[in-house]
Structure formats: structure tokens, C-alpha cells
Amino acid sequence: MDNWGVTMDKKINLYNTDGTKKFETLVTSTVSSQSAAVSASRILLVSATDHYVEFGDNPTADATGFVIPANAPMQFHFVPGQKVAARTHNGNGHISIVDID
């Protein structure tokens, strides 16, 4: 099924077989928040609020970054070991980073 231009081609498991999580949810505001290092080579970002995002070894999200629109899950190829930084346009929010390898 096509969702905002993103084809969801498989079932997404949120937990590894050993019970550990395959996702991280950042609490966000208008100040950049940074994830832990992500081990996946493909990630899904999803949030109920608009977010600016950046990827890198020590990224900082600002208002010139890439926008993840509210309620529009987006997949990205990712460099394992890097981090995701996110911030809202205004107010507080949450953004989930899901390993979809």
C-alpha cells in the first residue's frame, strides 16, 4: 500500500527476537534532540507533529533541515552508527525512529 509516497513493503517488527526494542522515541521541542547511534541501514521516521531532521555523527536539527510532515511516515537509507537529530517547528512533540532492516 502506498502511504504519502512511501511504499510499506513488509511487516515492521518493533522488537528483536530477544525482546529488545528496534525503535527509539525522542521527546522533542524547538531545541534539537539527538538519538543514540542507530545500527540500522534503513529507518522509518514517524511523528504526529512536523519535525526538522538531520543525520550524522553529531547532528543538530534546525529550521533549515529536512522536514518530516506530521502523520507522514518516511523511510530512509541510513549509515549505521550515525544519529538522528530532530526538533519541532513550534511546541513539543515526539518522533519515533524505527529500524526496518
Question: In short, what is this structure?
Answer:
The chain is an all-beta fold.
What do you see in this structure?
Helix content is 0%, strand content 43%. It is mostly beta strands and 101 residues long. It has a single domain, classed as Jelly Rolls, CATH 2.60.120. A four-stranded antiparallel beta sheet has the order 3-10-5-8, with no helix packed on it. It has a four-stranded antiparallel beta sheet with strand order 4-9-6-7, with no helix packed on it. Strands 1-2 form a two-stranded antiparallel sheet. The protein is globular and about 35 Å long. The relative contact order is 0.35.
| Structural class category | mainly beta
Q: Quick one: CATH class?
A: Mainly Beta
Helix content: under 10%
Q: Could you describe the largest sheet, including whether it forms a barrel? A: 4 strands, antiparallel
C-alpha termini separation: 19 Å
How does CATH name the architecture?
Sandwich
Q: What is the β-strand count?
A: 10
Please mark out the parts with pLDDT under 50 across 5 or more consecutive residues, or reply none. Answer: 1-5
Tally of helical segments: 0
Strand content: 35-45%
Could you tell me the CATH topology label.
Jelly Rolls
